[in-house]
Design a protein that fits this description.
495 residues; seven-stranded mixed sheet; Aldehyde Dehydrogenase, Chain A, domain 1; alpha/beta; Aldehyde Dehydrogenase, Chain A, domain 2; globular; 25 strands
Amino acid sequence: MDKYLLYINGEFREAQNKEYFDSVNPADDSVNAQISKGTVDDVKDAIAAAREAFDDGRWTNLDGAERGRMIKQIVDKINEHKDRLIELEVKDSGSTIRKATEDIMLGARTLNYYSKMASTVFEENIEGLSKEGISKNLLVREPIGVVASIIPWNFPFKMAIWKLGPALAAGCTIVLKPSSETSLSVAELAKLIDETDIPKGVINIVTGGSDIGTEMVSNKLVDKVAFTGSTEVGRTIMKNAAPTLKKLTLECGGKSPNIILDDTDMNMAVDGAIYAGFYHQGQCCEGGTRLLVQESVYDEFTSKLKEKIEKMKIGDPMDKGNDNGPVVSKKQFESVMNYIDIGKKEGAKILTGGNKVGDKGYYIQPTIFTDVDNKMRIAQEEIFGPVVVIIKFKDDDEAVKISNDSEFGLAAGIWSGNDERALALARRLRTGTVWINEYHLLADRAPFGGYKQSGVGREFGVDGLKEYTEAKHIHIDEIKDRSKKFWYNTVVPRG
């Protein structure tokens, strides 16, 4: 059986306690591989290596184009070994092979984007402040330093790229911790990184439990924390980072509304609702799991939706013919099934689904609840499984009211045949992303992040890259006659 080691300061090594944990296939509970269970001392070593690599300039001082060249080497390695990465992603996370293929290829594309962004020059004159013969005023952005990145279990490979890309492009060094639920593809990625010219200590990957995450967040040698995961954990990270006033990027939970207006193409909206709510078994932070349907088309829509969902094929994620695979783990399976019970007790009705599929693995039927009030737990809490709730609304104003009645504000979808109506509605939604007649479409160049308790800061694009920098104002005074300095007649003695 394959064993994966920690990657610290350009070397692979066992955890100091020599312990391992299993990568488990949620399709059948088989063990894929064993992965080193890093200790607090291990992650301290990784942070120290990243600190030294940043402070001595081996990465930061490189020309942006040279950093970009090395980042591109990782892209090339991913493309070369994509089949292996896809297989590991499926076996470790339960992702269907169709989705995993997409994730690996999109990951490569995103990293390629950041390889080009490494040449971005963040230096400009401050408009209206500089004046010839008086002063020059520059605004420059410099790499923030050592970045601690903690990623979730739902999109392990793609999330790793989301953190590595901007940090490396900005000139930072990084310590990356994948979820202990799904570390396999990221551990494999470490092998590919080791084959590039990226200097030792620039990228460090430490696998293990929450104790190493706590150390990463609180360690005084770390300058920034980049986290994707639950809002609950995000709050804890904020608290633990507070004593050292670390910069934070927190991409947290969601309960995103997906709004079906009465002027939409019904068949398109049905397909879009399935994609929004059941992609990756509903294990998406921005997923459209709160489905708002206008009452005039409610019956038609729910009928078509039920019919289409019941045609979905659930089974072995390695089979390209299957639409959904298992949820990620036994723990998540039990959590989702508990929420289905909660929905029943709250008085919601199951339109379709609600049961386990098969005797082996953690498969759950795609589940739709109707007769849902927005105050119910199943409408307010992030279930993170194949469960969608349908809420009826009368008009656009009520759709906005229901949509915004949530502690989250990550994303939203609107399905309409009238672009002007949809755009007017989109502007009233308190979410970081709104898709009109589309869903889940994240773009390298467009910022992604949430309002309210869905997070702090943004990923992607120039906004995302700036999250890994510090802004510096440089004032160059050009007044040569000291008597003409603005401060000459204040506190300085004359003569």
